[in-house]
Specification:
Layout: H1 3-29, H2 35-52, H3 56-62, H4 76-94, H5 102-133
Helix pairs in contact: 1-2, 1-5, 2-4, 2-5, 3-4, 4-5
Domain HepT-like: 52-129
Protein name: HepT-like domain-containing protein
Organism: Dictyoglomus turgidum (strain DSM 6724 / Z-1310)
Length: 135
């Protein structure tokens, strides 16, 4: 892969990293005891996915190694976590008559906060690979 493309990709990941961390911290601090807080939590879970990744096909591509080009970006565990977040994002964005169920939103929050370090580790490993290949 050309160094310009690697550099562009690394720059993009680094620019999104701060936004993702900010949203993740907000998610950790939300206690959805009222409907408004549940909706706010759902909105932030939606934004966490939007700031991180985009479509199912991209997630799939990120979870496979491309021999001679790059390692896989996401482990199977990260793919599962992000795919669940992606599914929630889809419902949140497109189901206008959907009633947000506080227990489901809180369960997703718990799953994300419990396992987010796996996603962070995968992304850190990929950033390190990019940096190594820019030398």
């Amino acid at each position: 892969m050309k160094k310009e493309r690697l550099s562009f990709l690394l720059g993009y990941i680094l620019s999104q990293e701060e936004e993702v961390k900010k949203i993740y911290r907000e998610i950790q601090n939300i206690n959805p005891e009222m409907k408004e807080k549940t909706i706010y939590l759902a909105y932030n879970l939606h934004n966490l996915y939007n700031a991180s990744f985009f479509h199912k096909e991209i997630l799939k591509r990120m979870s496979i190694e491309i021999p001679g080009i790059r390692p896989k970006v996401l482990s199977k565990e990260s793919f599962i976590i992000l795919n669940e977040l992606r599914g929630f994002r889809y419902i949140f964005r497109h189901a206008y008559n959907y009633e947000i169920i506080p227990e489901k939103v809180n369960m997703l929050k718990e799953k994300i906060t419990k396992n987010w370090s796996i996603v962070e580790e995968d992304l850190n490993n990929f950033k390190n690979w990019l940096k190594e290949n820019l030398r």
